[in-house]
Every structure is written in C-alpha cells, then in structure tokens.
Queue: 3 jobs
Job 1
Amino acid sequence: MRIALAALAVAGLAAAAQAATGPHVVTFTLKDHRFTPAAVEVPAGQRIRIDLINRDAATEEFDSEDLHVEKDVTPNGKVSFEVGPLKPGAYSFMGELHADTANGTITAIAAP
C-alpha cells in the first residue's frame, strides 16, 4: 500500500512539474509579409505554443502541412495555438496568402 501511494505521489509531482512549465513558447511577428524570426529551434518531445502577431494591414493564414495546422490572423491581430509534441526534424510553414515571402521553419532538436 505504501509503495502504491509513493508511486502515485511521484507521478503526481512529475505531472505537476510538467504542467507548471507548460508548452515551449515561440513568437513569430509577421511584417511586410515576412515572418520574424524565419527559423527557430524548439525542444523535441514537448508541446509548442505559437504566438503569431500580425503587424500587416492584411489578413494572413499560418499554414503548415508538416504541423497539420491552419490559423488565420487578422490585420494587426494576434493568435495563439499549440502544436506537437514534435519529433526531431524540420517543419516548414508559410503564410498561405503571401507564400512567396512569408515562410519559415521550426526545427525540433532532441535533448542531448
């Protein structure tokens, strides 16, 4: 009984620690139909929250087949959403309405 209670306590502490840290946050700013930064590295195996700030006077759609996400952001607006956890590798994204200039990459890096 004590072993089972101890195991539950350890599992509860681990879950609380993960909940306290939350997802890894990445902020992209869209200006002149370009993402800044255009490339970021994030930890693999962790949920990622993307905060997208649109400084343009036009709506844009964050689109990524690799991340399985499509999110509209209004002119001078902000949108937040989560993806992952991601396996190690590169994930491309673009602004669907200005794909020739609005594009980038998120690279998930495995912990050493």
Note: The CA atoms of residues 53 and 78 lie 4 Å apart.
Job 2
Amino acid sequence: MSIQEIIDQQVKGHPVVLYMKGSPDFPQCGFSAKAVSLLRQCGVQDFFSVDVLQDPEIRQGIKSYANWPTIPQLYVKGEFIGGSDIMAELFQSGELKSLLAD
C-alpha cells in the first residue's frame, strides 16, 4: 500500500483526523498545541491523531496529499479543513464548532 493510500484510509476512516507534531497530550510545536486546544474548545475530546515526527513518509506524504505545505492539518469527515491559522479563523467565526458538530 502506498503512503497516499494509507493517508487516504486514515482521513476517510475517522470523523476527525489531525496530522500534528507530537500527540494531543504532548504536542511538539505551538501550532499543533493550538490545533488541539481549538478542537477541545469545540467539544472534541476524542479524535484520531497522527504524529508526523514518528514517520518521515507520512510527514512528507501529507503535504502532497492536501497540497498544503505545513503541519498541523485537520480533516473532518474526509475533507481537508486547514492548518492552525485557518482553524483559528473558523473558530472565531463559530464555523469550526458547527463543522465538528454535524
């Protein structure tokens, strides 16, 4: 199975997926910590996360999967939402919470 197929299965196999540096309990960068915090503020305590620091192939593969150069990356119901800056904008407008609630 190719790395793109693995990523595709992860993204489509879970309602909320966060590709990040570190884990939700121990984020390894500020942007990942912010992404986790925003999800939790929206009431999402349990989500599928992938630590890109553990797998260089995933770390590179996820960037081409979404054509998005940075980590973290959030996917909701198989759809790419964005990184922590976009998540913050959606959170401020209330859109993130409704995206996650559907």
Note: The mean pLDDT is 96.
Job 3
Amino acid sequence: MRKRIIAVCCAALSLAACRTPAPASCAADARLLIEDRLFFGLSRPDGGAIDETQWNEFLREEVTPRFPQGLTVVDARGQWRNADGSVSREATRVLTLAHADDAANEAAVVAIAQAYKRRFAQEAVLRLKQPACASF
C-alpha cells in the first residue's frame, strides 16, 4: 500500500511539473502572452545541410503566414541524442514567437514544427513554451 501511495504521489508531481505556472500578474503596461521557442536543426539525415535559401523559403511559406505580427530568429549551435543513441552536433536556428494563448496559435505552432520535420526529414523540433509578460 505504501509503495502505491508513493507511486501515485510521484505521478502527480510529474504531471504538475509539466504545467507551466503563469506569472501571478503582469505590470500595468504589460500583458500575458505565450513565448514559444522552437529549435530547428540544420543538418539533414543524408549528411547535407539546410542552407540559407531553404531556411528563408521555409520562413516565408510556413512561419510568416501563421505569425505575420512578428518573430525572431537566432543562429545557434546545438547538440542532441538521436533516436539511435548517437549524439549530433549541428548548426541550429531558434525561432521565438510571442502570441496569445489560444487554440489557433497553438495549432499554428504545432503545424510549423510538423512542416519542418516533413520538409527536411527531421526526427524532431524542440519546443519550449512558457507564459510571459510582454510590453511594447
């Protein structure tokens, strides 16, 4: 019985850790938005790389139509463990989006990640999502 209670408590804590707490309140000149950061590896499974022209085409066709109000892209270097256990190090683009917390924006972010994986044969696109107070 004790093991079962511990297991239930651990499961509850794990689920609670997945939820992102919203800020208690934003300043009067700010509003609550969602900040999404998507990490796009630029290496292809065949050993090639996604070049500047291909990346810009992806932004123009997949991202900008979904988030015309604005976005930020930063060049980065990253690494991650592939499904086969090997570690890949590669050039990366980090896309940051700030948007309202609604179903349409959620679907748009998911669609961007899916489109990138499909277009460039990627295993994954990392997404970090958190509430943020924003002012302009």
Note: The chain is about 35% helix and 30% strand.
